[in-house]
Every structure is written in structure tokens, then in C-alpha cells.
Amino acid sequence: MASVKFDDLALQYVLSDESDKQQAISEKAATAIEQSTNSRIAVGQWVASINRWIQPSDDSGDDNFITRATALDFLASTLGVLRQRNTSLRADQVKLLVTFFGSLFSSDHRAGVTASTKALRHLVGMQTFEPTLGDDIITSICKLGEDFKLQTPVTRLELYELFLRLLQDPTVANDLEYRHGNTCGFMTNLLDLCKNERDPQNLMKWFEILKIFLQNFSPSEDVTTEVFKTFSAYFPISLRASATPAGITADDLKSAVRSCFAAHYRVASHSIPYLINKLDQGDAVTVAVKVDILQTLDACLLQYEHPKQSVVPFSNQIWSSLKYEVRNGEIQDTVKATLKVIRSLTSRLDDNELRSFLADAWRDLVEDLSSPSYTAQAGRLLVAITGATVAAFATITPKAIPHIQTTLKHTQSGSHKQELVALLNSILTVRSHLIEVSKEDANVDQSPGLLKDELFGDSIFFDAYLPLWEQCSAGEITTEKVGILKRIMEGLAALVGQQSSGASPSHQLCSAPTCERIVGWLVNPSIVYPLEGKQPNESIANSDASQDIRDAAVAALKEAVPLYPPAFQLLLQQYISSLKVAYQNQLASHDLPLEIMLVASTLCEVSCSTVPGQQLSLSKPASLINVLLEGLLWMLSEPAPPRYWTAFISSIRLSIQQSLNTLLSQASTSTLSKSQGITKEWYTAYIKSVEDGGALRLDSDNPADTANPTKEIGRLGTEDEDVHRQLLAYSFSVVERLYRRFTTVRQPGESIGNQPCVGLGKDFVEGSDSVTEQDICLHQLGLLATTVIRALSEEDQKALAVGEDVSVLFNDIDLHVDLQGALTPGAVVVSPLDDYRTAPLSMGILQGLYPGVMSSAHHAQALKCLCTVLTSAPSPCSDITRAALDISFTILSNKLRVEDKDNTREKLQVQENLMNTLTNILDVSSESALDAPTRVRIFRSILHFLAGDVARFQSMPSSHNLLLKAVCDKAPPEPTIGRQLARNFEVLVSPKECLEKENHAIRKRLSNEWLYYKAVQPYLKGCFPNSDASETVAVNRAVAVFAVLKHLKYEQYASDAGQIVRVCIRSLSTFETGVEMDSCLSVLLEILDKEPGALREHLAGLISGMIKVYDTARKAPKATGSTEGSTTVRAKRRERILCRKSALEFFQKLPQSYEAHHLVPYRQQLLRPLSAACGDSVREIRRTALLARKAWEALA
Question: Is the pLDDT confidence value at 353 over 70?
Fold first, then answer.
């Protein structure tokens, strides 16, 4: 019964051609063997089940071979299932099966090899497999002889995996070594068998086998030589793309053969001379091969054990060959790989061998260091050697440093000096690295002064850097001297950070006076000279050279200050004293406010620089902010023009933002999640401690009366680990103090309404010349508030009651509220004092608030108040102030939560009021009709309200969107100012900082798509004249459409691209050359980029239209005697430039977007206008025209 069962299973397996069915059959056979009561009989019947296909037959056709191979695979597959189930056959059964399958390698080369190999691999994995059978298996397989290479790559891969499995088995390996000794006869047979392998995947396994053999066996010299010849014959290895199997790359093969070279030190006597000889072939070796050789040599040097036997005998040979690769090398990849080899070589030497090697190397290097032609190359070699180990550094630097210093004194070549200083700098950097390594590695020698401390403190400063600095700073500053000065500054930064070596606590090698002197040198070009309008040297006329020196000094300070913290106070003192000198002496040869900001930016970068692995402390950013506040207070006391105030406020904002970003980048996600929030009690106590420490009082008119609170803030920073929270709290207190300084509270008798109001402070003296500068300053202060407030969490904002400060601007005012918490009707939410000029300050607070902080008590009331102010006529404020009110209107419209019924009711009331206002400004028949500019201003305010609403759109109920529909329906057709209103439609969707996610705006993902389907798509048909729309109305409608479309992505209007293109073509002849035309051209360029096919049928009209657009935009408008201001004239000139550039970009992109036969008919028509455009007055336009003409000329 059992015999019939195995016979049936074997027959089913042979007849099946589906792998899943074959696997199921194998599992049935394995189960039958496991469940049999007599495994000897069961296994015998199982093996005998394939006899009908194994017996000799007269049929030698392919079908017979395939059938026999499938039958054998039935046995192999069954063994695979047994192995997976961890079921082992008896040892005698395993031995018989090994003998059976092994015999097939000599009797059935075509059908039996693959299945036999798989079966043997499964048998080797069984627990009852005897190690002595490993040699039998290898012997059997080697009988394949020349037939091995005739097997398919897949079959050979199975064989390689079997060999690898045997050699990796410790018991089999021990038996093989016991049987064969150091003659390793089995390996000799394998070498003969596999010597012609070429398949990449098989080579990976073959190289691994050779590596394992060299590492785990002890072959004789003759066998080692044969193995080396085998794998070295493939070196350098390459890979044809056509021969690349999936997952195997040329680098994989290189790495595999490299592992053979570096497998064991016994091949060192073959590998190293072989690689050196390959390297010395000169130009016959390509760069890629040379890099491969060097990387292989590096692997050998690093991985060989017993360096005295494997590395030392070849050290001189390696050095003699490789030094020329650097000395005469021009390819950076080769030089870099060579230096790595030399570093590895040096790291493997010690004691007498190291001293001998370094002595030989120094004899070669000393001459090259004295030669300007080879200093750079010798320096690279010297740095590679010194950086290898502490011992190498300690041995060679006592010779190198004095020689470099002596050469610096005697050489006259500027480039030579520059290279020598660069070498000194590199040695300093290497020493700092070795100090760090010695601290982390307990195995490194910790002897005091091992890294030659006596050479790297004040000694090297006075002997090398000081004389060279004085020499280069004196006399005429040439380009070469600029290069040397830059190198010196790099070195000085590294010198400041030099620490003592040894196990004892480290200390700075340079004395404090030397460090201060170095910082003083770096401060001049980076801080003093820019503020005082000086050059580093009177002979420098080239601004680029001066900027290079300044940049180098800034970079050096960023490196030096974290290594010598007291330097930062010196920088701050010099900053404040220099700007006072510059202002008092009226050094007007430069823009002092701009330099105040630029130098403050430098100080900000320095304050945020830290030693790697160290967190930013509070003291530096807090000290910088306080110095900037001191400068601001000093300017206010002078008094200086408001543009100076703006410079300091902008600088404070930059400092806070960059410091907060640095802390966030240094903090991990877990740290941020554990960060404590700011409570009112903690904030009050913290700020009191800072003020007690001497924080600047901004209500003082004499900055000299205040002290620097740096020390106290620094102390707090060490007590409380959450530096981010402290800095945020301190920054918030700065905003509070600045707001209070620049505002004043006026009581009911002095103001409007029944409550106190906030107006501008005493610093804002009335004067027509300074009002604009004052307003710019107020806007910058508002942006500073936004930067700080948005960094607070929603809980922090609620705890500090920031939302209530929108109207009181951090002043102590108790607003009147009713029993429900709402403001009483007489409460003033937006202060009308000083023509609403405090609006930017309110805007700054609003912009940083979370929507959850908004309340109906304050902010819904503010929305109604703003609606009243912005819809009143004449406008109660300047255009600059109105811009801030408009932005506030947008913010409130966006952030007031519609989930709150009170907010919804108030917002719908505001929308109804705006609809009435819209009706009034569009009613030109009314006797009280407003002038056009006023109507446009009010309309823009309505659009700002809608912009905030659109970003967080609500499709339902439709009553929420009645205002948007009314604006779209009624504004463009207006007969007198419809076109002006249409141009302003871009307000609905143009980028606004107040609606960015970082400012916690509510912005739905599909807001722009929703706006398109509400405000654009329904009106596309109206862009053409018809019975319901005149030519004027159609043009106005098109202006509104493109004002919105230019801010949308193509994908958002792609479904109507064909209709939009037709509107574009018409608009090329109906739009004014300016902002209208620019919006149309922007849309055309977007369509050309994303879907050129939409324009293909219209090329003739588009090209002729674009030519006219360019010609019209190039002609200057005729003088009409108008009284337009210079600002308006400049704006229109910029608009014409943009139109010309967009038209030429369109022509330039056409050849890239279409095949030539679509464009050739228009080539002659276009070449002449393009040639004329090459003479445009604007350089950027000329460049675009040249590219376009070149592309069209190539069409021929």
C-alpha cells in the first residue's frame, strides 16, 4: 500500500507542471515518511518510486532528460520539506542518499546535477549528517570535470552554495583539514573545477568560498599561491551591463574580490607587491582602476593581523610608490584614496617600525615643504601621517612645526605662505580630533603632553601667526595677501580651541590675553569696520576682497567663540561701542541701519554656534537680545530717525527666530513632548528674577542706568534644563516691554469711547518726513510679536491671556465686560488714536494666535469694529496702516471658529454689512457716491475678509458664501471702476503670511480648487462678448479671471484648459501691458509647462499675439503730463519688464515643448523680433532672448 502511494506521488509530481502542486505532493511524501512505523522501509520505497525514470533507457531525447530531472527533483523537494520541518533521517540513510546523489555527478551530467545538488544541500543541513561525508561530496562533484562549465549558471550557483555550506560548517572544516593537512587537496580540486567561472552572481559565491578557505584553513605556501592566482586573475574586475543580474553591481564584485585580497595575512606577500606593481603601471591604469587598487590595498593594510609580518616588510615599498601619486597626482579621487592608504599604513606601525618609517617619510617631505611647487602635496601627505595615530603625531610634529615656521619666515612667495598656513591649520585640526579620540578611547596612551602641548599654545601664535598677520596687514593688500589673511583667520579659530592632552582635566593651551587678542583681530573686519564704514586696509579698493576678508572673519568667529566662550561678551561690547561711534561721527559713506542688521545677523550666527554635541545655552542669545535692546534704547535717547529703531527691532526678531530654531533642531522628539508649558505663575516669577538681575528697563531714557542681565539669565539657564521654554518666556517679555515702550494709555477724557485707549508713545514725534519710517518700524515690531507668539503653544497662549492683548497691546487696562464676558458696547477694540497707527501692533499679536484662543468676547467684537472702520469713508488712516487693518480683517475672518454659534452669528452679521457696503460702492447713481480710489480701497478690504474665509471655506450652508457670489457677479461689470476692481481679485488667493500654516491659520487642502469652481469657472463664458455682456464687461471679467488663475496650480483648472487658452488668446490684444498682461502670460507659461498639447492648435495666434505684446511692452509710454509719482512710474516700468521677459520665455520654451514640424512654419516670422530683443536694455531679458533665438535657429 505504501509503495503504491509513493509511486503515485512520484508520478503525479513528474506529470505536474505547476510548482504549487509539486510542493503539495512533496509535503505529502514527507508526511508519509514522518508517520511511517518503519522508516527504513518507507525511505526505501520513497527512493524506489523514481526507478522507472532512473533505469537505463534507449531514449536519449530531451524529453527523457527532463522527465528524469523532474523525478530526481521529487526526492530533493521532499528532503527540503523534511529539513524545513527539522526532521532528520537516520545517519545510515543519510549516508546512502549522499552516495546515491553523489554518484549521479559522474553518471548523469545532464539530468542529475541540479536535483542532486539541492538534495545534498538539504542532507548537509540535517542533524544526522556526518562530517566525514563532506569530503565525499566534494570528491563526487569534482568528477564533473569539464562538464562543470557546461551546467547552467543556476545549477552552478546551487553547487557554489553547497561548497560554501560545507566550508562554513566547523565540523566538516575540521575533518577536511584533518584528512588533507596543509596540502588541502580538496581545494586544489575545486580550483581546477571552478577556474573559468564568469557569471557575476556565481563569482560572488566563489569569492566568498575562497575568502572562507583562507580564513579558516592553514594551506601550504603552494596552495596559498594557487588560491591567490585564482582570485587575482579577476582583478581589476568589471561588469558589462548586459551581464548584470538583478541586485549585483560592479561595486559588489569589487568588494567581493577585495575581501579575498584582505582575507588573511598569509596572502600579504602576494597581495601587496601585486597591487603595488599594478599601481606602478602609470598611464596604462585608468582612474577607476587606480582607485580600486588603492581601496583594495587600504583594506589589506587595515584587516591583516600581525602587522609586523604582514605590513612592516612592505611599508617602504608602499611609501615609495604612493608618495608620487600625491606629489604628481591631479585627480582628486586618486589623491584622496592614496592619502587614506598612507593613513592606514601609518596606523598599523608602532615603536621602532613607526619611527623608522616616519624618518624616511620626513626626509622626502622636508624638501617638498620648502618648495612652492610641492608644498600643497607634501602638506597633504604630512596631515595623513600625523592624523593616523597619537604616536605618529607626537613623533613627527616636533620636526614639522619648526620647519614650517622657518620656511614661512624665509619664503617670498605669497602662494607658498598660503599653503604653509593651510598646513599649520590642518595640523591644529588634526590635533583637536586626536584629543577627542583619546578622551573616548581608553586604549589610547594618556601620557601628559603626548600631543606636544608646548608647541600648540602661545608659542605657535607668537612664532607663526602673529608675525605673518602683521606682515600681511601692513602695506598694500594684494589678492595674495587676502588669501593668506583668510587662511590665518581659519588657523586662529582652530588655535583658540587647542586643549591640553593627557589623562588630567584638559585646559586651554592659549592664554586668555592671546585668546582676546585673536578675537580682537577677528572682530575688526567682521564688526567694527562694517559699522564704522572702514576697510580692513586703506589700500583695498576692491569690495570683493573686503567682503572675502569679512566672510572669513565671520566664519572664524563661529568656530572660535564656542571654544572660547568669554569672547562673545567682547563681541557684544565692540558692537555697541562701534555703532555709537559710527552714529555720533555721522559716518555716512555707507548705510548704517543696514550694517546694524547685517552685523547683528553675524552675531546671531555666532551666538547659535555650538561645539558638536553641546546644546545651545540661554546666555548667548539672551545677551545678544539685551545688547540689541540697549542699542535701541540708546538710539531712542539720541533721538535717532525711526529707520534705526527698525534696524534693531528686525535684528531682535532675527535673533529670537534663529535661536528658537536652533534649539528645536537640537532637541529630540521625546524631549519636545516632555517639555513643560508656560504658566502665568512660572512666567511672572521667571521674569521677576531676570529683572532683579538687572534687565534693561525700556521705560528709561538713559541706557547707561541699566545693567546687563546676562549673568543672571545664564545662571537660570543652568538651573532649568528647558532652555527653549526660558528663551521663549524671555522673548515674550521683550515683546511686552517693547509694546509698552512704543505705546501709551490715554484715559477716557483724552480718547474716544468710555474706556481708556492705547495710542503711540512719546517717541513718535509728528513730522511728515518720519511718519512712513515710523509706520515701517511699527510693522516690524508687529512681526517680532508674531515670531514669538506663534512659537507659544495654544496652552501657553491661553495661560498668558495673549488673546486679550490684541486691543490693550500688553498695557495694564481693565476692559469693561458684561456678565457673559462680552465687551460692553462702549469698549474700543481697535484703537482710533493717532489715525489707527497702532494697527500693526494688534496685527502682530493676532497673526500668531491659535484659532482656539480666539473668543467671541474680544475677537468677534474686533471683527465688527474692523468692518466699521474699513468700510467708512473717507478712509480714516493711511494706506500703510490700512494694510495692517486689512491683514487683521483677514486673520479674524479665518481664525474665528464657526463652531461657536456666537462667532457664526457675528460673522454673518459682518458679511451682511459688507454686502450692503458692496451695493453702495457699486451704486454710481447715488448722490453720495464715493470717489474711485476710496471705492477701490473698500473693495480690497472686502476681498481681504473673503480671503480669510475662502482659506477655511464652508460649502454649506450656502448663506455663508453669498458675499463671494455677490462680489463675483457684480464687481467686474461695474461700468466705471469694474476693471480696477477686477485687477484686485488676486487678493482672494495671493500668498499671505498671515494665512501660512506656521501662523496657525485654518487652511483647508482644497481651498483653491473650491475657489476656482466658485469664482472662476462659472464666469469663463462671460469673458467673451454676448447679448448679456458688452466688450468692456467681457474684458473686465477676463481680468478678474486671470488675477485669480495666476496664483493657482495648473491641476486646479486643467479640466477647463481649452476654454482658458481661448480667453488667453483674446486677452493678448485686449489687456493693458502691465499687471493685467503679466497675469495672462503667467497662466500661458504654466499651461505650456504642464500641458503643451492644449496650445498646439493655437500656435499661430499665440506667436503673433506674443510678438505684439513684446513690442508694446518695449515701447516707453508717451509723456502725458500726468502727475503720477515716481513710485508709480517705477512700478509700471517693472510691469513692462516682466511682460517682455514672460513673452520671451514663452518663445524659448516652445522648441522644448513641440516637435520641430509644428514650429518651422513660424520660424522666419519670429527670428527677426528675437534678434531685436537681443538688444533689450535689461540684461536678463537679453539673456532670455539669446537662448530663445538659439533654440529657434536650431530648428532649421
Answer: yes
pLDDT band at 710 (very low <50, low <70, confident <90, very high): very low
Q: Any idea how long the chain is?
A: 1196
SS3 of the chain: helix, strand, coil, percent, to 5: 70, 0, 25
- Cell numbers at 1104, concatenated: 503673433
Task: Report d(CA 68, CA 51) in Å as an integer.
Answer: 10
In this predicted structure, the answer to whether residue 231 has a pLDDT above a threshold of 60 is yes
The predicted-structure confidence for 626-652, as pLDDT tens digits, reads as follows: 999 999 999 998 888 899 999 999 999
Q: In this structure, which amino acid lies at residue 509?
A: L
Q: Could you give the 3-state DSSP secondary structure of residue 817? A: strand
d(CA 427, CA 379): 9
Please give the grid coordinates belonging to residue 738. 517693547
Backbone phi, psi, residue 466, to 5° = -60, -50
3-state secondary structure of 760: strand
Kind and range of the H or E element at 744?
strand 743-746
How far is residue 901's CA from residue 897's CA, in Å, rounded to a whole number?
9
Average pLDDT, whole number, for the chain? Answer: 86
3-state DSSP call for residue 1001?
A: coil
Nearest-5° angle of CA 205, CA 208, CA 209?
90
1161 CB neighbour count, 10 Å cutoff: 11
Q: Kindly tell me if the per-residue pLDDT of 814 is higher than 70.
A: no
Which residues, including other chains, have CB under 8 Å from residue 1071's CB and lie 6 or more apart?
A: 1035, 1038, 1039, 1077, 1080
Segment 796-808, tens digit of pLDDT: 999 999 988 888 8
Q: Tell which wins on pLDDT, 1025 or 887.
A: 887
Residue 1016's nearest CA partner among 1073, 1072, 953, 1059 is: 1059
Q: Which three cell numbers stand for residue 576?
A: 555697541
Predicted pLDDT of residue 1027:
76
Q: Tell me the backbone φ, ψ of residue 6, rounded to 5 degrees.
A: -65, -40
Residue 542 confidence (pLDDT): 62
- Helices 1163-1173 and 1099-1114 pack at an angle, to 10 degrees, of 20
- Give the pLDDT confidence of 250-308 residue by residue, as tens digits: 889 999 999 999 999 999 999 999 999 999 887 778 889 999 999 999 999 999 999 99
Q: Residues 693-698: contacts with CB within 8 Å, 24+ apart?
A: 695/626, 696/626, 696/629, 696/630, 696/633, 696/737, 698/629, 698/633, 698/737, 698/738, 698/740, 698/741
**Do residues 303 and 260 make contact, with C-beta atoms less than 8 angstroms apart?**
no
Please answer whether residues 564 and 519 qualify as being in contact, where contact means their C-beta atoms are separated by less than 8 angstroms.
Answer: yes
**Distance of CA 1165 to CAs 536, 983, 1161, 1162, Å?**
57, 33, 8, 5
Nearest-Å Rg of the Cα atoms of the chain is 42
Strand partners, 1026: 1029
Q: Residue 1186 phi/psi, 5° resolution?
A: -65, -45
Q: Report the pLDDT value the prediction gives residue 717, as an integer from 0 to 100.
A: 46
In one letter, which amino acid is 770? S
